[in-house]
Amino acid sequence: MHAIDVPTAEPDMARLAARELVLRFLALAASDPASQRFDKLFDPGFQELAAAAAEHLANDPATRPAELAPGEAAPEALDLCPLIAALEAPRERLQDDHTRVFGLVVSKHCPPYEVQYCPQTFSIYRSQRMADVAGYYRAFGVEPGRDVPERADHVACELEFLAWAAAKERHARAQPGAEWAERAAVCRDAQRDFVGEHLAWWIPAFARALWDRAQALAPPAPLHAAFAQALASLVPVERAVLGVDPPDELAEPRPDAEPEGDGCAGCGAAS
Description:
The chain is globular and about 55 Å long. With 271 residues, it is mainly α. It has 10 helices and 2 strands, in the order ααααααβααααβ. A two-stranded antiparallel ribbon has the order 1-2. It has a single domain (11-264), classed as TorD-like.
């Protein structure tokens, strides 16, 4: 496999590069297989780099949190190879599995939207959560893409935003001077806050629900099961690296009240 492409062998920079690759790969894997975004997953070079990055994180002692939260899997189990292998299925099968897993409307089994795991079902509360997510995107100059419109709280959007913030931190840390160091700190703080407020508390629940749904189908949906496994291992990696405390309990899907809010097409990022 290729070595992770970083401007220095310094461990923190290698970890940043690995996180960025894995987050971006999983953000694309969360997209609709009918979308143009999904095509990027079939690039052999990208697959090899992403798999190597996941292996790097799985073997990195700094990715071990003090304890696992409900629904999380051990960081040592982070492995993109099963997901990459599942991509070898015919594209029509991948598209069909996506429809079977999520349905043609918002899934009641495993909704891929953050606010549908909120215990509060009031539309005002959920709209505020959506607005807060969108606020992070705007603060980092992220603009919605146009190929597959999605809400701002879709798992693909949140993962890609985190990848974007990691990329900006890595770039800033590679530059000399106090101003760049301050920018890097801002990026790191934003990642920590975003993971704590908008990712760590619901992604494990989504991953577990997605795994159950993918395995319950006849035939099962291997891509979605592998994606769920990778997510369950990635969340504790992010918490450990960023210093985010574990949630106390596993969230539950509450899809009855679907809010209106800002859209996002997998968060195509542009500065």
